[in-house]
Amino acid sequence: MANRILIVDDAAFMRMMIRDILSKNGYEVVGEAQDGSQAIEKFKELRPDLITMDITMPEMDGIAALKEIKKIDANAKVIMCSAMGQQAMVIDAIQAGAKDFIVKPFQSDRVIEAINKTLGV
Fold this sequence. Notes:
Elements: E1 4-8, H1 12-24, E2 28-33, H2 36-46, E3 50-54, H3 62-72, E4 78-82, H4 87-95, E5 100-103, H5 108-119
Parallel strand pairs: 1-2, 1-3, 3-4, 4-5
C-alpha cells in the first residue's frame, strides 16, 4: 500500500510541485492544506503517514502547527519545507519534532530521499 502524505504550503504552485514529485514516485497524496490550522484539521481527519509542512505561512506557521500535531500524535512524521536562509527556523522545527527538512526550490531526489528516510523505506 502506498504511503499516505499530507502536503501543507500556502503556495498552490509549491503544493503542485510536491504532489507531482510524490505521485511520480508512488506516494499517495491524501490531502492538502494552505496554513497551519488547516493542517491540524486535515491531520486529525486523514491521519496521513507523513506531512510535508511549509514553515512560513499566514494564520498559523508550520512550527506552531507541528507542535500542535505532535500533541495529537507524538509519533507524527513531519518534514519541514523552507526557503534558503531560514536556518534558524529549521533548527526550531527540528527541536519541535520535525524529522527532516527540504529546501525550496525542491529537488525531487532530495524530497524522495527525505521521505524514504523518514518513513524507513
